[in-house]
Amino acid sequence: MKVLLIKEVPGLGTPGEVVEVRDGYARNYLLPRKLAVLPTPHELARFAKIKERYAAELSDRRTKAKALAEKLQDAEFVFQRRVHDKDKLYAAVRAHDLAQAIAERFGEKIPVEHIKLEPIHELGTYTVEIQIYEDIKATVRVKVEPAA
């Protein structure tokens, strides 16, 4: 069955595209959730404009992501934690902590799942990669120091 996508469906397509899907997927998932409609001539004409707007929005997202990547590139974030024997931390530094620090410093929210950071349990300096948007990435340094 052919359907016209209204919203972006990961792995399937973008708004305004006509895609071929199985009948059950269209009837039971896409159509009831208002992710797609049947591709009538009226709907095709209506969604041509939406497709243009979506393309402009994607371009805008990419531009914003590049600007954020430039701001973040080689930024250093310092975390102070209490330590016990052999420079082990009582509380690990996690991706959530880094996301919060980025939001405070740059005013940009980055989803925690986009930050490639295993919990840090020791003092030191670490390099962390952040997936900002599709193929746009930034590398930041995380420095963990003992709390005074």
What is the assigned CATH homologous superfamily of the largest domain? Answer: Ribosomal protein L9, C-terminal domain
The helical percent reads 25-40%
Major sheet size, sense and barrel closure:
4 strands, mixed
Question: What strand order characterises the main sheet?
Answer: 4-10-9-7
Question: What's the layout of helices and strands?
Answer:
Layout: E1 2-5, E2 18-20, H1 23-30, E3 36-37, H2 41-72, E4 76-81, E5 83-84, E6 88-93, H3 95-106, E7 115-116, E8 120-122, E9 124-133, E10 136-146
Parallel strand pairs: 4-10
Antiparallel strand pairs: 1-2, 1-3, 5-6, 6-8, 7-9, 9-10
Structure description:
This protein folds into two domains: 2-64, Ribosomal protein L9, N-terminal domain (Ribosomal Protein L9, domain 1, 3-Layer(aba) Sandwich), CATH 3.40.5.10; 73-146, Ribosomal Protein L9, domain 2 (Roll). 35% of the residues lie in helices and 33% in strands. It has helices at residues 23-30, 41-72, 95-106, and strands at 2-5, 18-20, 36-37, 76-81, 83-84, 88-93, 115-116, 120-122, 124-133, 136-146. A hairpin with a 2-residue loop joins strand 9 (124-133) and strand 10. It starts with a strand and ends with a strand.
